[in-house]
Amino acid sequence: MQAIIVDHVGGPEVMRLVERPMPTPGPGEVLVRNHFSGINYIDTYYRSGLYPAQLPATLGNEASGVVSAIGPDVTQVQVGDHVAYLASQDAYAQYSKAQASRVVKLDGLPLDTAAAVLLQGLTAHTLVTRAYAVSPGDWVLVHAGAGGTGRLLIQLCRHLGASVIATVSSEEKAQIARAAGAHHIILYTKEIVPDAVRKIIPEGVHAVFDGVGKATFEGSLQSLRMEGSMVSFGNSSGAVPPVHLFELSQKNLKLLRPRLYGYLLTEEDHRRHIAEVFRLVEEKVIDVHVFNIYDLADAPKAHEELEGRKTTGKLLLRIN
Ligand code: NDP
């Protein structure tokens, strides 16, 4: 089968399309013929070395496709079922193994939609329900509001009754964040974020959802009101340097650094959050905005565009 592998860390050019042996499903595992794999910013961290990966590595943390074989003791799915799943860095490939208990049968949801919404939808949903439970009347700040996760965060925060301020880097991205439901937009390439926030809501916001990291962290803290919550969940501009705790004490702030998988440890949490995300898609509370679908061989181009801030919404790989 074909797969994208990385045998040394670096820029997008280190990704290579190669022939790999087909995985064989063991007890409790299924083999999925992937049709779509979602591209996520985290894939770039494993490729660049920001997050450590065992090399050579196949990238990719989510996919959708058709079950092509099942291992012993699998009762949850059958060959031919359409499924989606969170993968362990092996989804940029024609076939991947997955735990049967962790694949989700798609009840009519198209394969491309499922791959497009799974990881970023789960991230946004767990952030607004468990990292900081957004409530009616809250003010929230969402960075990179035209991005895959940011756009979904805007939709969910608005649905939960919050007033949403979103940051973006361009006018074109502002339109996308506004269409997703943001009440106010800040062009963080031109404006000073905390100053712009205080013009909109002088007390500051209740919570910041910050996936940009290094470039926005300080401004996010300054944008919070007393007892506000800083949810730092990513590093698209680079990793946040160590934080001095005294920075939090002036406003009694809460600081969280959540990881999606930490909210999905039990099968019950995993099943519940996915069911909820798919329900929100069906009810059109959240929708998927696919920026582009790339061929598997074009994964390096997709990473280049994602890291070059050229994309909006979701990027997918089509796997023939
Ligand atoms: P996005 O689609 O949001 O793409 C990243 C965006 O970040 C860009 O489009 C850009 O938007 C913005 N950005 C700001 N500064 C930079 C920079 N210097 N270089 C590149 N981009 C920059 O990606 P994802 O939705 O996949 O991920 C968003 C964040 O969420 C990432 O940090 C990711 O790691 C994190 N994440 C964390 C998870 C967790 O478990 N903690 C799970 C999933 C995602 P603009 O041009 O508007 O600035």
From TrEMBL:
<dbReference type="Pfam" id="PF08240">
    <property type="entry name" value="ADH_N"/>
</dbReference>
<dbReference type="InterPro" id="IPR013154">
    <property type="entry name" value="ADH-like_N"/>
</dbReference>
<dbReference type="GO" id="GO:0003960">
    <property type="term" value="F:quinone reductase (NADPH) activity"/>
</dbReference>
<keyword id="KW-0521">NADP</keyword>
<feature type="domain" description="Enoyl reductase (ER)">
    <location>
        <begin position="10"/>
        <end position="317"/>
    </location>
</feature>
<dbReference type="InterPro" id="IPR002364">
    <property type="entry name" value="Quin_OxRdtase/zeta-crystal_CS"/>
</dbReference>
<dbReference type="InterPro" id="IPR011032">
    <property type="entry name" value="GroES-like_sf"/>
</dbReference>
<dbReference type="GO" id="GO:0008270">
    <property type="term" value="F:zinc ion binding"/>
</dbReference>
<dbReference type="InterPro" id="IPR013149">
    <property type="entry name" value="ADH-like_C"/>
</dbReference>
<dbReference type="InterPro" id="IPR036291">
    <property type="entry name" value="NAD(P)-bd_dom_sf"/>
</dbReference>
<dbReference type="InterPro" id="IPR047618">
    <property type="entry name" value="QOR-like"/>
</dbReference>
<dbReference type="GO" id="GO:0070402">
    <property type="term" value="F:NADPH binding"/>
</dbReference>
<keyword id="KW-0560">Oxidoreductase</keyword>
<dbReference type="Pfam" id="PF00107">
    <property type="entry name" value="ADH_zinc_N"/>
</dbReference>
<dbReference type="InterPro" id="IPR020843">
    <property type="entry name" value="ER"/>
</dbReference>
<dbReference type="GO" id="GO:0005829">
    <property type="term" value="C:cytosol"/>
</dbReference>
<protein>
    <recommendedName>
        <fullName>Probable quinone oxidoreductase</fullName>
    </recommendedName>
</protein>
<dbReference type="GO" id="GO:0035925">
    <property type="term" value="F:mRNA 3'-UTR AU-rich region binding"/>
</dbReference>
